[in-house]
Amino acid sequence: MANIQQIAKKAGVSVATVSRVLNNATLVSPKTRSKVEEAIKELNYEPSMLGRNLRNSESRLILVLLPSISNPFYTEIINGIQNTAIASDYNILLCETDSKPERENIYFNMVKNKLADGVISMDPTVNMQKLNELAEKHPVILCSEYEKGGSIPYVTVDSELAAYQAVKHLIRLGNERIALISSDEKFLYARQRREGYERALREFQLPIRKEWIYHTKALDFQHGVHAMRMLLQLEEKPTAVFAVSDTLAIGALKAINMYANTEEQIAVVGFDNISFSSMTNPTLTTVSQPMYDMGKIAAEMLLSRLKGEKVENIVLEHELIIRESTIG
Amino acid sequence: MANIQQIAKKAGVSVATVSRVLNNATLVSPKTRSKVEEAIKELNYEPSMLGRNLRNSESRLILVLLPSISNPFYTEIINGIQNTAIASDYNILLCETDSKPERENIYFNMVKNKLADGVISMDPTVNMQKLNELAEKHPVILCSEYEKGGSIPYVTVDSELAAYQAVKHLIRLGNERIALISSDEKFLYARQRREGYERALREFQLPIRKEWIYHTKALDFQHGVHAMRMLLQLEEKPTAVFAVSDTLAIGALKAINMYANTEEQIAVVGFDNISFSSMTNPTLTTVSQPMYDMGKIAAEMLLSRLKGEKVENIVLEHELIIRESTIG
DNA sequence: CTCCTAAATGTAATCGATTACATTTATTAT
DNA sequence: ATAATAAATGTAATCGATTACATTTAGGAG
Description:
homodimer; alpha/beta; 434 Repressor (Amino-terminal Domain); Rossmann fold; DNA-binding; DNA-binding (chains A, B); Peripla_BP_I (chains A, B); transcription regulation (chains A, B); DNA-binding transcription factor activity (chains A, B); transcription (chains A, B)
């Protein structure tokens, strides 16, 4: 790979002039410019990002942290981020932390070291203290999961309200024994969705029973299956379930299919509206988050921060998508 | 962020000594070493990857190209790659090309520019000519999709054989009218799976009818639904379907559920054994690829190439997982 | 105490770009 | 034709590390 010196030599000019051509400065004569461009073409030259970044302390790379790419929830968000970033000549790097702090560290270092210009974190398991430290010196945006009262700007939805509405929907259908399949409450979204669930129950004077609240260790299908199976073994079984994620809800549907008596109709509501949720049988009622927009806005916020602008937190609208799993 | 000069000054030594401490060279006296280490701790210093990479032309970063993260097929492969890479002190960057050549270019440039040390490509839409050019100067491994007779090392499964076995399974169940839902035949895996499909049919003297071969434009659920819907509108409907990907197969199951008469039992076989495939109703019979191992081996091959070693192509074993969708 | 050798440390070039400032060349006005 | 100005180009420092080579220091032998 040729470097700028070789181009300069070949074109018979100085490296400064080559650099000017590269960055379309105006003070290059057309003649010189074309000489340089020819040399670039001939030697098949592409400027080194390393040299450039080192000098400019800018990489035009954005890190996107997520716990795991296996949850389809992130897919559309990433599309939103990516399209927006690319339109502004930035690229994104997907960083799967697998909820492991060591990996997180490596990615944080990339930012500190100017290998990346900023971070969008969607990882609920992120070390908030470290992220806050990073955010003091570098642009950071939280997407979906956020820190209440924290200083890092975020874009999210109102999880409490969405959960409240989802559970109210179940109540209106006549359900009085409504279970919650949630994840670890160290995550804000899990706490908020439980609060919404409880608010709806309280409003209708329905009991909040802790044996109907099941906490899973992870969000994949299998954990949903297992949670539902546990709920089905209770002497007083719930007639409806609200799960904090579609993956759990789909697992619950599966468990109902496999283990429940066919005459028991158990209604299920999920959260996220992942693409698979309309492929299940029955199709899944769920809370739709504007995932693409969330990603887009997160990217826009980060781009603003990169320009040194202040940004406001944003809470986007959600929507309850009613499908077969609550109709029967 | 402090730099090496500041550490040197603080510790009262030269930058060379600091660098030696950083890279645990042996020729540093214990006294000096601890002075330097203290300065590093005090100033909270972390060496700049940019400076280091520029000098060493090494980044210890591996690029993983994939067309889209929305296909769960890639999830486990990525885990395999990532765990292997991290064990050797490499990190991976996930690059979603969205099948767009511009994006591909950016990522190729990262490699040319030493921002990344090598590439594992899982993208069937990759520009093979450009990838081959890149592979002349940089380590590149193909994972899953590969180039027959090409010079880039690959790890994959025997798609033709797997498809042949899958279709034979359908034939043994008594199906004589077997459809194929495939994707664009510009992809090698699609061609190979069609060949396997045809070989099985020929072997049992069953007709190969082109109205039973449907090519989709993409691999998502919706395209599977649409394909199956088209097949159900034929006057002579197939009694079984082999789809080249689980996502398509799951869409097909959905379409059968929605549009087929309940008395028609249409058997379905997919390919990949994604985690969803055991959540559907009926559960999906499918070809299981050793995805984690494939990723692991791809990473190991790349690490070997990075050390300058030669590597051999590897074809891994697959397995037909029989579930409800071919039992009824 | 001196000399020699080995160990420890320092100096300065290097990687590949950008850019402030200096210098040369071209253009315009008088 | 000459001075003044504008445009084009060049020179060299810089970003933050590594490392060959040079130099200093320490330790041991005589």
